[in-house]
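INFO  loader      accepted 1 record
INFO  loader      residues=157
INFO  predictor   begin
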Amino acid sequence: MNASTFNEIEFFRAIAASGARALLIGRRALIALGLPVMTSDYDYWIGSDDAATLNTALQPLGMLPTATPGEAMQKGRYVIEGEEHVDVLVARGVSTVDGTMVWFDDVWTRRIYLAITDDVSIAIPSIEDLILTKKFGARPRDADDIRWLEVLRGTKP
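INFO  predictor   done
INFO  writer      dumping tokens
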């Protein structure tokens, strides 16, 4: 078995330096907030015109997209693969399971930054918006994640 050469700091640095409007969502965002959950991939929600920028930023890390930016926009999502798996949501807006429409531009304006190192930060949705992104699906683990986020924001014991 070969050791992985994936460097998470360089991954986050490349995304931050790219200028792409890219929000880390999913369980990796919860992990960045210090919550005790596990996942094996990365999930990003990006601005509708940022797929090419993100793809270009990650190519030097050996990470390649499964779709062109046009195909990604048409499908609403795509994957970037290399030593790690990155699910990328490319949609102006997404409906939650209860019918609330969540718009990327609104979530982007409320984003927060988490310092990963002295010179690298990641953008994630606000806790309220992160809860909404967990309502895009109806998986049991999404409900668990929402409970963790409610504890973090202080609304659940």
